[in-house]
Give the backbone structure.
Amino acid sequence: MITYEVVGLLVLIVAGLLLLAFTAWRRRTPASLRRIDAYDRLNREVGLAVENGTRLHISLGRGNLFTARGGSALAGLAMLRRIAERTSVSDRPPIVTSGDASLTILSQDTSQSGYRAAGAEEGFRVTAGRLTGLSPFAYAAGTLPIARDDNVSAHMLIGDLGAESALITEAADRQNASLVAASDNLSAQAVLYAAAQDPLIGEELFAAGAYTGAGAAHEASLNVQDVLRWLVIIIIVVGAVLTVLGFGF
Amino acid sequence: MRIITAAFAIAISFIVLLGFFLPIPVLMSLRAVLTDWAVVIGGIAVLVGIFNLVAVQMEKVRMRQKGSVLGAILVLSLLGTFGFGVMFGVDDPLMQFAVDAVIVPVEGALMAILAITLVYASIRLLRQRRDLTTILFLLVAILFLVAIMPKPFDNSAIDQFILYLAGVFSRGGARGLLIGIALGTLLTGLRVLFGVDRPYGGN
């Protein structure tokens, strides 16, 4: 009897093997990634913030690491690691906000790793990683003053955010700050589609690492996602055809 | 030290994962114990997070930054509520009053602001990006609102048709997005499992 656990384990093993194979391949042949306007903007804003002496605000959302929502938070952390490394020479280090205490601690550790990799660990300040609130609106309310008071030139919202993200995007717009935003939450995606200059939809959130130069494994992840997506499409189509033909499941 | 941290984290991750998939009693009980520990550590993390919140606000006060007065009020309120909660318990009527009189109205007000913000964002969207997708997005939103709003005449057949049509496409689209997000989450998890991404500071 094939159970969900067996199928899950098989998918996991196949995905793991594919990831290893694609990573080895991508180390030899770097991927040419399709253009995503939001990530072009993100890379541009990182450079501009360092040059202008302004600050970046990175919001990792409220993704609790004990739930499936933690995936988007981990993707945000991978991006943070690269941004921290690139902005470590700046006078004004990026501010990282989150609405989950464990995520705040991880954001501080990740920022510190970025500074250490750039050889600028002395510039790291633990208060740059902030817990701004534990409920959705408390988180948004705690984040709003950062948009207003901290000379932020660009906001990067990558993680598990809900509809309350509209309050943060509105604050960013009032300060004429640039905005790159992505969430794994469908309501937030609808909100961000309306509010962000270049919205990121669906799994584009998980491409943040690859587009900020986090390495071959991140590029390989995109390849594996493509392969698995095609497998899912084939399974859905075959399942639909079989159901129409009367072979029920 | 960093290598030991990474090895430890990866080993624990594998044990928890295998305990989820394989019905081996030793793995399952190990998984339960490790998950319990993680929950306890997560609880302590909340205290660390609150300490961080106080530290950030106190730094604002010390450096006389913008909003330092509000920061001081926040810290005083936090300490007062925390002390009161520890002494009298969270079920005390005064604690309930603090929630009912402060948190509920503030969150309600923010919800109202959010509704207006969303309407404004929709209008701004038409100004910023005038393409087919934007028009379709707004058209569907308006049709949906028209279908669910109370009307002085009977229009249920058309309303039901609009909701059915919007539901078919939105459900399909939502499933597509969720499948993409699930795959992205899977690969992100695998990167952490293999030690490629080490958010615990081992990079």
